[in-house]
Amino acid sequence: MATGLKWVGFLMMWLMATTRKVEGRFVVEKNSITVLQPYDMNVGKHDASIANFGVPQYGGSMVGSVVYPDKATDACKPFDGDKPFKSATSHPTILLVDRGECYFALKAWNAQQAGAAAVLVADSIDEPLLTMDSPEESNDADGFIEKLEIPAVLIEKSFGDTLKSALRKGNEVVIKLDWSESMPNPDGRVEYELWTNSNDECGVRCDEQMNFIKDFKGHAQILEKGGYTLFTPHYITWYCPKIFLGSSQCKSQCINQGRYCAPDPEQDFTEGYEGKDVVFENLRQLCVHKIAKEENRSWAWWDYVTDFHIRCSMKQKKYTKSCAESVLKSLNLPLDKIKKCVGDPDADAENEVLKNEQKAGWARVTW
């Protein structure tokens, strides 16, 4: 069993790195930081949020010396010189930079190019930790996002100020970045989540995501059937403010009287499918997972999602309830139970499944 879990750990490290490319996580994933030197700063662990880019050392740790640049502290431009922050000691350099003025990912890239082994981004305001996301499709970012190889984390403003103060006093600050607890494993299983979407008309991001799901499906099902993993899919949804409930936009993008909404797939309210169609199918896919899990076959979610994409795509004008139900029947999934879980999308009532999704969601930022 130990050997199996070790193998799963390596596979999950690959999974987490891959899923960051196709879809951002909306649950803030954290690791811990401990100040080892100066000794008077060793007062316990500090939380840091793991970026949605770069390569965290899942299951491991890194000890390094913190460096704060004398200038260009936002790291928005390449640093002068040939790898000016490459460590000359036994401790690698962990570069501390300030939030703001450019993409988080660009800061990490400039730090990596300057020889840093990791980067800490100090928040500029007092707020709960957020996930630093990679920018959406951008010509500026296309050249380096895939080349990022160092871990990047966001730290709270107060902790950043403490580190800067110690460095200004001339102290050597040595810290330990620890990712050993960043892979939750209840009951000896690796737990992971995937934020996804049934919309297949949102461009390259949607295509990359579906390709990932198709490619990983077989591995995911083997891991789930073997009891090595606990997988949970999530779908983003928001609500329509009461003042706009009567608007055509809310009516076309929302179900349950404005409680649960998704954007129009084509960004055109006059033709094609509507946002509420996407919410309805997202809900159905959530219910597939919920009911299949209750029947001890949660891996059936992967079969349904991939089959639905092939047989019921928007591109083929088959993104419909009837097509979805034909897929459910072909997979011997309990149609009546799934219908009951989905409920009435026109009802002026809450849907517990989507309500829980809204609670699970968390903001992500690129700057």
Automatic annotation (TrEMBL):
InterPro entries: PA_dom_sf, PA_domain, VSR_TRX. Keywords: Calcium, EGF-like domain, Glycoprotein, Membrane, Repeat, Signal, Transmembrane, Transmembrane helix. The keyword tRNA processing does not apply. Its main location: membrane. Residues 190-360 form the Vacuolar sorting receptor thioredoxin-like domain. GO terms for cellular component: endomembrane system. Residues 1-24 form the signal peptide. Residues 64-163 form the PA domain. Pfam families: PA (PF02225), VSR_TRX (PF25011). It is found in: Endomembrane system. This is Uncharacterized protein. It comes from Opuntia streptacantha. The lineage of its organism: Eukaryota, Viridiplantae, Streptophyta, Embryophyta, Tracheophyta.
